Amino acid sequence: MAEQYVELRFDGVRYAGWQRVEVRESVDDLCATVQLASAGPGIGDDVPMTVNSVVEVLVDGELATTVRADVVGRRVGSDSHAIRFQGRSLGRELVDCQYSKTMNGLKLAEIVKQLGKTFEVPVKIDAETAAVPNFAMQCEQPANALINAARTANLLIYPTADGGIVLTAPTAAPPVATLRYGEHIKAYDVVDEYKLRFSDYVVKSFDYASSEALKGAVKDSGISYFRPMHIVADRHGGSAGACGRRAELERNRRQARAHRIEIEVLGWRHAEGLWAINTQVRVVIPREGIDGVFLIGERAFTLDSQGGSVTHLQLMSRDAFVGNATPSRKKRNAGSRK
User: Quick one: 215 and 275 in the same domain?
Assistant: First the structure.
């Protein structure tokens, strides 16, 4: 395998040679995160980066994300130096900032476009969307409002390579690769994170036009004790039916995350390109009874002196993102049988 690398490009300069790397994206976040570090002899040079610098992050020569710096640090000793960089893609402003805005009767796609324009975040719309009767934020983080509205519509909203965000449906495309344990998979975890699940999911909203309280509820039949989660629908519920769909989707997503597969594969690429979120992969692990197709919900490229270049993939059933009932754990481990 050829040596793989990460390079930063900004303000007409390039920085490569990073010895520790993590570039992470998730379908549950609006911004990618980047953490890099390197060390060497001598006192080194300062990194000529400013608070306004827009940084392209190339992974193995291909644009993976576009970020602004959160932290740039330099440590200097008598005969050595170290540099660390932490950044997030341009959608971080939607995550960090608190903002007030009211928009009535606009389609979700138009709402996303308007907020993207306000915060100078590129936006791509790849789905048909319905009108949102009342979209309102009062000193709130736009990211939370957008993610909740997207979930209500059974859509995903996540970061893109240009630093922006995309609003789209969970992919139904064929798997980009087949990964077999003992052949492609370096290591895997089958994770049971029971704390993510609740017995009752109740989503509440309010219809200001009719002055009517709205509520949707659904149970997790696998939890035999009382462990409720009540969610305020951020005034985007729209109807009792929408609240019910949001409750069902919350349950299904949590069931999927509570019982998921995490795998490590050598390198950062498959045959068609870099590993990416919201793509599907077939996984075969005979000893676990797993032979099925899963959606990549989270992906991290890492590099260090011990493990070399590795891709970490968090996989779950696509049903978790489209509002379908989540299958039993036995069937979920099998995925979609080939």
Answer: no
